[in-house]
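Progress against Task 2.4 (sequence-to-structure conversion) is shown through the following example record, which the project officer requested during the mid-term review.
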Amino acid sequence: MTPRTPRLSRLRRLTPGRGEDGAGRSGRRRGAAPKVVALGGGQGLSASLAALRRITGDLTAVVTVADDGGSSGRLREELGVLPPGDLRKALAALCGDDDWGQTWARVIQHRFQSEGHLHGHAVGNLLIVALWEQLGDPVQALDLVGRLLGAQGRVLPMSAVPLELQALVKGHDPDRPEDVDTVRGQATVALTPGEVLSVQVVPSDPPAVPEAVAAVLDADWVVLGPGSWFSSVIPHLLVPELLDALVETKARRVLSLNLAPQPGETEGFSPQRHLEVLARHAPKLALDVVLADEAAVPDRESLADAAKRFGAAVELAPVARQDGSPKHDPELLAAAYDRIFRMHGRIGPWR
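Structure tokens generated for the chain above:
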């Protein structure tokens, strides 16, 4: 047990629906929609959320806050705020398919094009930061933006403070291919030409957002990935209270693998190597299911062996878009999640 365990126990007592009334885990009737928490950042988390909102109305996104590039990096440096970009993308992914939802999704994703200081800023970033300054509460502000958009779920930052990502990288300087350097900043880590060996966050013991911890403890399912492995997925495991919650939760855990290695930080990675890296950063983490696109797994036996170290089964499904791009199809990914929730979850339909 870590020193943070008593706090997790208090949060567990405060979370709703932990009764032992015979209605199933979390005290909900069989047939109710599952409580799902999805963790990640950037386009990977957006893809997962766009799929999950199709199968549950009880959805929470827990988003990384280490971005230091683009509009987010500029706002973070100038105002000392959490980087809003990945939070904005998650909110856009949760917008409905009706005119209201799609209009607002386009508005908050819109970037100004000019020769002045607004160039490159996203409307949603400015809106989120304005509400942070008005309300003084990041969670309350994000909830308010979500209501404005009609978002089909909740978006939370994983930590209450902006984080700096640091990585040990072999060959970051092509002229010194055998040297290992410390590379700082999410944007730099994501684009390194070298081999990322490990990552950490600064500060090393950042405070988790209590609502994020409570959501993980009260979930039926926790979904980790897909996304940039070192800069969007693993950082959640580097927030101690959040990792404790992921280890201790009674929820079932799904790891969703990427469709292809990412140029830079995971160049040349096999599906099973993604799992090996995850295990090095969080050796106590258990998983129930590893989801992968069937066309992206050349060695199914090796992936199954890697998954067994987490106590997980492998589920292969066609989840990629048909245009050949390394992007998830929301409908296909939704079908895969739905099948996993039914096969590995409670008996009876979710919807």
